[in-house]
Amino acid sequence: MFDKYLINAASVHNTGPQDAPDGFAFTAKLGYYRGLGLSMIEELTVSVGGTALAREAVRFDEGNGPLTLDQMETAFDRRWAFGTEATILVAHPGGFPAGEHKLALRQKLRVSYLPFPAFNNDEKTVAL
């Protein structure tokens, strides 16, 4: 539904020391029109150049401090509101690769009234 609005391509930046980045981050929006509790976000898959990065490398921060995807499963008191940007942090030695690359985000959401998971996908060409 809102797939083309998930990734904010202008927000991509490296994290860690400037001369030796240890990862990268970008902001994203939820692809569901009502917002969801973080425990209902089953998966956030980040890919660079068509290669999915390890689940363990991804952290999520809606403004209340970063969580691993495993920690999100029991974050019953936290929500990702519709229309707000959250930060996706990725541990990736060397940071985001130099030059243009395709950055993709796949959200797997558990919506209470759907008998199947909802998937949202966005892919943008970004460069630092």
Automatic annotation (TrEMBL):
Belongs to the C-glycoside deglycosidase beta subunit family. Keywords: Carbohydrate metabolism, Lyase. One of its GO terms (molecular function) is lyase activity. InterPro entries: CGDB. Residues 2-113 form the C-glycoside deglycosidase beta subunit domain. This is C-deglycosylation enzyme beta subunit.
